[in-house]
Amino acid sequence: MNRWFSRFSRPLGSGADGPSCGDEEARLVLQLAGAAAHTAGARPYAPLATYLAGQAAAGLPPDLRLAALHRAIEAATAAGPAGGDAVAEAGPDRPG
Hints:
This protein is an all-alpha fold.
């Protein structure tokens, strides 16, 4: 990834390294965020989709994490537009 993410992730995990991901994982997570935001038509869906995909992939070996991220991108694309879903209306000043 890059130095900012190294500094960000260090306090999130145990030990000096904290959680990390490889370049391919990072690319897929960003692709998922884009697919979720564009397909749903709502930018707030991107962080929530990537969080849920991270939960689904947590603890898997690297090759299965990549497969889980590919499935998440497909699911985000297949989910279609958000329409009037409440999360699309939520923001930092408005609870969802």
